[in-house]
Amino acid sequence: MDKNKINMAYSKFVENRLPKTKFFPSLLWAFLVGGLICCIGQGISDALVAIFPSLSKDNVQAYTLIILIFLASFLTGLGVYDRIGAFAGAGSIVPITGFSNSIASPAVEFKNEGLIFGLCVKMFSVAGPVIVTGIVSSMLVGLIYYIVGLL
User: Fold this and answer.
1) Residue 143: how many other CB atoms lie within 10 Å
2) What gap in Å lies between CA 28 and CA 24, rounded to an integer?
3) Residue 110 contacts by C-beta under 8 Å, 6 or more apart in sequence?
């Protein structure tokens, strides 16, 4: 039998076995959970302004991000964030909490492999390329701003 025919037959077999996704409910739950996470972030920000009125806007934003990162990492460690992700799909990948989960999840999963090869190496398997891309692109933008400033 031709290898291409075997691949096509296998692809058709897998396609028939996959569970059918309910498109609209998935979108709705992703929207609602993502919005809820954003509302929680806004609530944290508003609470910080109410409790500490002398904080600058930049400090409030920084503390809000720190609290959201902590909460997402904590919930990942407890296994709650994975259940939220299974339920909400892409709605749980709101930028800062999703990134926190992507770093904490492999660290929790591979902690038995030790401090270096478990936590340190696996922790950045997903997040490493994102961090490197962010650093390189920010350096390029800074260089462009510097050159434009010289002109």
Assistant:
1) 10
2) 6
3) 117, 118, 119, 121, 122
How many whole angstroms separate alpha carbon 60 and alpha carbon 54?
10
Answer yes or no: are the C-beta atoms of 111 and 53 closer than 8 Å.
no
Over the stretch 16-72, which tens digit does the pLDDT of each residue have? 888 777 788 888 999 999 999 999 999 999 999 999 999 999 999 999 999 999 999
Cα separation, 33 vs 14, whole angstroms: 30
Q: What is the torsional sign of CA 74, 128, 94, 50? A: positive
Structure tokens at 88: 């909400």
Reading the block at residue 127, the tokens are 């997040």
Dist CA 68 CA 44 (whole Å): 9
